[in-house]
Amino acid sequence: MSHASTIGELRAAGYPDRSVKEELRLNLLAKLGRREPLFPSIVGFDESVLPALERGILAGHDLILLGERGQAKTRLIRNVVALLDESTPAIEGCEVNDHPYRPICARCRQLVADKGDEVRVVWIGRDQRYAEKLATPDTSVADLIGDVDPIRVAEGRYLADELTIHYGLIPRTNRGIVAINELPDLPERIQVALFNILEERDVQIRGYRIRLPLDLLLVATANPEDYTHRGRIVSPLKDRFGTQVRTHYPETLDDEIRIMDQEARSPAGDIPVRVPRYLKEVLAALTAELRRSPHVNHRSGASVRYSIGNLETLIAAAVRRAARTGESEAVPRVCDLPAVLEASLGRVEFDTIEEGREEEILLRSVRAAELEVFRRRLSGMDFHPMLAKFNGGFVAETSDLMPASDLLSQFGDLPGLAKLLERLGVEEESPGVAASAGEFALDGLHLSRRLNKEQAGRLGAFRYGGVETS
What we know:
elongated; alpha/beta; three-stranded antiparallel β-sheet; 470 residues; five-stranded parallel β-sheet; Rossmann fold; 14 strands
């Protein structure tokens, strides 16, 4: 069918006449019937969000996605585009992608009346059938729907002529998907302009009532009203969305880590990077701890972007150490966590009466996260050989610029290293991995009050020693 170049050839090939919502419904049913994963890049929504989205598409509804920031609302919409056909025919030269069988603009109606089946068609890809608009206070009706084009009037057309109109984003995405992000930020007078688009599917421009039965799926995103003070969705507009889909943050550490691994970017370069799983668990647990904290503003939350950014900073700290010290492998360690907290401090909004306590709250949260992972991973492990070394007066130093070999050389033969690596799930040993595991154990013992720890000068440099007993 994609070789058809005229309306006549299209009819002869038996191209079906169906709307965008019918197209989405049939393609979704086909995927469900083949038991294909609907959106492979979306993690943690299989049992909660996706069923509601599927029902909305099958019902032929316009959709509104409600959720806090960083809950993959926009990514979800962009994935819906994959349910469109790979390409679809439109009348050649049409501003609003007119269906060859059902032209809606004045120019194409006249063209079909004059030439009939000889009218040429072009094939447009699914990417050209998607438009996205971030709602901002300066958005105008002309941006979304259209306005009279003074240049076309100057060319000699009458104002009442439909051909004087310059169409906005929504009509130009006819037969596609239009996404409006952060809908409450759209001024209420502009939201009112969407009423007819959603219900009657026509547009009104500068007082002209132009019957333009648009064929599209309109999807909007918003924060739950309880969480935003920037604006609201007017009730009649909210009523016109057929299905509301609620998103959420990852409900398990595994889901959070899968998203971090999927989205985090590693610094370009020749230094191989190896991030131990238990440190990823610490970062995921830190984000979960902040989401539960009474000191964090829950209108803003701690999004998955926070976890992703922290993982990228952790990797960057390890790469910096490897580049400065000549190590062949970059492996993050606990001594890199202060750099992560320093870089992420401004990304969390706190609800605290006392100013200046933000760093303390964040530090307390990361300690709680680290202790949680330490206990889960290493509970019941025999640390007596290691502790005996410290109780004899041994002191170990570490820093964010200390090579792994220097850290390990302080211990000689680190007691219980093989068992430690096994409990932490490390399969392939290397100096960087051994140093990271040993430092994690030292810090966990400190948080369990079995070792002392003090800062040794600058940020990222620490000294571990035995606990004094009376």
